[in-house]
Design brief:
alpha/beta, two-stranded antiparallel ribbon, 8-stranded parallel β-barrel, TIM Barrel, 10 helices, about 300 residues
Amino acid sequence: MRFSFWPTPMLPFEETLSLGKHIAATGWDGLWLADHFMPNAEDTSSPWPEAWTTLAALAPQVPNVRLGTMVTGNTYRHPAVLAKMAATLDHISDGRLILGLGSGWQENEHQQYGIEFSTVRGRLERLEEACQVIKKLFTEKQANFAGSYYTLDNASLEPKPKQDRLPLLIGGGGEKVTLRITATYADEWNVWGTVETLISKMAILDQHCETIGRSPDEIQRSAVALLFLSDDDAFLSKIRESSDRPIIAGNVNEVRDTVAAYREAGVDELIIPDFTLGKGQQKIDQLDTFINDVAPVARD
């Protein structure tokens, strides 16, 4: 099982770089950035660096770990342009990129930047076409595609990605459409979720794979959950009662048990955001405790 880190999107670049270097030096497996332009809030004035530019700056300075977006909003960039960006960054990172892609959901950035938001159905239809466009450009010398939203006309993309198969990760848990798209096109899949959520949705993903005649083993599965690592029982009880997001909460032994359960369920990668880990040295200490004292229980 891999363990990856997701830094707060509003951090200045210098701090993101410092954290990236730290996790690369201490045994983490991946670094993921959120592809958004602003907070999903009424006040959108907080600093929020752009994800792909940041990844390009991190790649030469943060060694060894996989790098990716959690996840790129398909609506923000034409998929052919995104494919070009991804192939370029795969070379910059010496073949460590994962292209995380989702349909896009955050309405305020579409509204502020004049980007068409469409409907849920429209965004999912675009996502499916984008998967086809990207895969064609990665694998074909001259790609052609005629969809309802995107077209390619003898399109070239050179250089191809450094990896023979640059992984395409689809993010989202929609059971009828998103998981079908995942089963059809993805090399990896991600969702926010508890162990129970992952078990349920992976079973549905497997069913979609069976329907299209694909082996479920071809798709790596990853989960995101907020970490609350503490010995304070009163604090943990409050968190368990109030959190509206999937959480992993407990002391070291309790968190070990939860992480082991993710692995037992079939999760290949667990992604830990730093949103709940405090600041400065407190954050570093939490990261180190997790990777040194918790992660070994589920390492391959």
